[in-house]
Amino acid sequence: MIFPVVLSGGSGSRLWPMSRELYPKQFLPLVGEYTLLQETLQRLDGLNPRTSILVCNEEHRFLAAEQLRQIGQLDHNIILEPAGKNTAPAIALAAFTALESDPEAVLLVLPADHVINDADSFRDIVKKATIAAQRGDLVTFGVIPSYPETGYGYIRGDAGGELGQTVKSFVEKPDLETAKAYLASGDYYWNSGMFLFRADRYLEELAQHRPEIYQACQAAFASPEEDLDFIRVNKEAFYLCPSESIDYAVMEHTDRAIVFPLDVGWSDVGSWSSMADVAKKDDSGNTSKGDVIQHNSRDTYVFAENALVSTVGLDGIVVVQTKDALLVAAKNQVQDVKAVVQSLKASGRTEHRLHREAYRPWGKYESIDSGDRYQVKRITVKPGEKLSVQMHHHRAEHWIVVSGTAKVTIDDNTTLVTENQSVYIPVGSVHALENPGQIPLQLIEVQSGAYLGEDDIVRFEDKYGRH
Edge-to-edge strands of the sheet including 363-371? Predict the structure, then answer.
């Protein structure tokens, strides 16, 4: 039985300003109605897979859980990595997890942030590849190249039949002339980062070729701990694990590597130019998402999150507007967006890490305004959810209910606050906010004080296990 293993560890800095460290591209609806993570799982429906296994980091855990819940695939199936150690250890943790349910488990390993336009053909190829995986081969999927791309690694295959081609070599990202030669030969494929193999076979190969990784992951998984919807492994053991990709650790060393060619409209959407490539275009080659007016422009991509964006006379330009940032770039230079992110980090700003809108297990908040000694937020609390019992050393808060009903506790007093009513929380008061109703609770929070940072929270009780 196939266990989808979705790797969700990337930060997606090249898709800034939409993608941020705490809200990377796999959690964004960049192409369709659903996020890239949700689309990754939904395109597997025709394979009748077992419960998916998502591997992600601690900072994204509640965001990942909410997105799985939205599509009915949340089932205590999120492995939290104590630290990013690349793909080989992440897949090992998933393999140990799957083997607890099925000793013959087959893992379909997928990045969380890729686009596949022809899902039917993809499922057909996976079904064929499953036969090779069940017999003990380690399958990888190579995308048939359509142009000489220098940003991908390549896989060289040998002529094969229905059950794939023997992998002759994995090669690094080439220069342009080498990429042209690869394309002309017809023997090379883009390395998609997708794999299919039995869980036990992967662990056998890992133990043989990289015993340090195998032993560290085995020790980390010796006594997994369930925490709400998450599976936690031993931090100390996992910290000792070498960081290495599956290609370096296993695929380049095994003699059982098989590649299946893919022609399914694949893209890793690794830049705004590749986003433009997979998006629908008008007669002038323009793409518009959101409230956009383009006049006398061609080959231009515009993403408007929450405001009208107009272009006049542009050619080959990318424009991305969010609530707190605006990117304007030449399409042929969008790879350098990561340099902007590095500059933001170096200058101590936060736009590389946070959106104005932040998600929490209880709902979300959006920063509306801020200034000297004040900050204003719009807070949404989901029905039945509760913020932690907490206090602040440096700020007082006013809450004004916009819709719904708030159950507010301040020190020893609990009261219900309804629409158009407000409540004041003094500095140092122990307080809690809960939505006891059936509809989302929306309120405006006005903070005032000498220090308004998110780290000025002392939690006494939290249903989500936060400290």
Answer: 357-360, 363-371, 374-381, 441-449, 395-403, 422-425
